[in-house]
Amino acid sequence: MPLALLALAIGAFGIGTTEFGVMGLLPQIAGSYGVSIPTAGLLVTGYALGVVVGAPLMTVLGTKVSRKNMLMLLMGLFTVGNVLSALAPDFPLLLAGRIVTSLAHGAFFGIGSVVAAELVAPSKKAGAIATMFTGLTVANIVGVPLGTFVGQVVGWRITFGAVAALGVVGLLGIAKLVPALPRPEGAHLRRELAAFRNTQVVLAMAMTVLGFGGVFAAITYIAPMMTHVAGYSDGAVTWLLVLFGVGMFLGNLLGGRFADRRLMPMLYASLGGLAVVLALFTLTAHTKVLAAVTILLIGALGFATVPPLQKRVLDQAHGAPTLASAVNIGAFNLGNALSAWLGGLVISAGLGYTAPNWVGAALAAAALVLAFWSAALERRGTHPVRTTDLTATPETRTRVHH
């Protein structure tokens, strides 16, 4: 494994810790500023929306910068955002710090995926992407529980300060270990935007929104579901989330291993399995042991889709993968926001705390349908305009077509 992948994984660990860690600190933060828990929840919503906006924005701004330098700038922005959060004297400034931090998220994973894939042989690209995302999954096993514990015992500001220090470590690691890869010849904004004319790129992103939406439809409401339906104590929810993180870790490794061999079959299996498990969760949520096993499976099947979906976007975007890769990271967060909203609707309608599981199953099943449709288009030989052709001269295009 190239050591550069370790540097990317450290950055991913810090980002994962700051993204999910705040969920366990909302009561402490709300108490510090005298705001309600729902108001403090804006720190989660604001972050997710910042990722959706920041992924394409920061990537576009970085089209004239080498990928290594852009990754360093993003880790610098991430560090500044967490320092601002740690020192924020009032809630609006804390929210601003969260948004600043989130702007680096999507572009880091998007550009980092491209860099990771370029560091290894073509047959190992999905595995390299999975290695980088291992940092994100380990964050949910170690970083989030540890950050929550530190925040509850010592103070939530210390947690943000520690994450800022992780950002510095990630920045230095990238500076030292990531090679100065040359920018692709002819890379510019028009070329990157052209990737979205490819139907397969759009379908892969839609699969990302729906598939990951299926995961977070259930996980967003895991606390009330486990305490009110399964009968777990409030304190046990933290360990159930750790179990979910273990599933994420295992699924990410599995997805990276098999996506390099059989990408589409891996998507069929993971999305189909996810739809079935989420539907069964409406039943298993009533039993402690079965609920715990199901949570592990949801994490594993959900994150088994990450390497193949990200590689699918990179492959289909051809010579202009950077913006498409970053936007696909935003698609994960769009799926989170969409599913949380839909899950809240069915709970508000009086359908119970297990109702979001049906929403998740429907979203995952819809993603599976798109996967079959994408493969069918590919078998028929439907090839939208390649981004490499869009920057060619008319004479070159003539030679290609003839």
Strand and helix map with partners:
Layout lengths: L2 H19 L4 H8 L3 H4 L1 H20 L5 H21 L3 H28 L6 H29 L2 H22 L11 H6 L4 H21 L2 H9 L5 H24 L3 H22 L3 H16 L2 H11 L4 H28 L6 H25 L7 H4 L3 H8 L1
Helix pairs in contact: 1-6, 1-7, 1-8, 4-6, 4-16, 5-6, 5-8, 6-7, 6-16, 7-8, 7-12, 7-15, 10-13, 10-14, 10-15, 10-16, 10-17, 12-14, 12-15, 13-14, 13-17, 15-16, 16-17
Structure description:
The protein is mostly helical and 402 residues long. It has 2 domains: 183 residues, MFS general substrate transporter like domains (Growth Hormone, Chain: A, Up-down Bundle), CATH 1.20.1250.20; 216 residues, Up-down Bundle (Growth Hormone, Chain: A). It contains 19 helices and no strands. The longest helix is centred in the middle third of the chain and has 29 residues.
Features:
402 residues, mainly alpha, Growth Hormone, Chain: A, 2 domains, 19 helices, disordered C terminus
Compressed to H and E, one letter per element, the order equals HHHHHHHHHHHHHHHHHHH
Q: Estimate nothing, just give the exact number of structural domains.
A: 2
N/C terminus separation: 42 Å
Question: Given the structure, what is the number of helices?
Answer: 19
Main beta sheet strand tally, sense and closure? none
Keywords: Cell membrane, Membrane, Transmembrane, Transmembrane helix
Organism: Streptacidiphilus fuscans
InterPro entries: MFS, MFS_dom, MFS_Efflux_Transporters, MFS_trans_sf
Domain Major facilitator superfamily (MFS) profile: 4-379
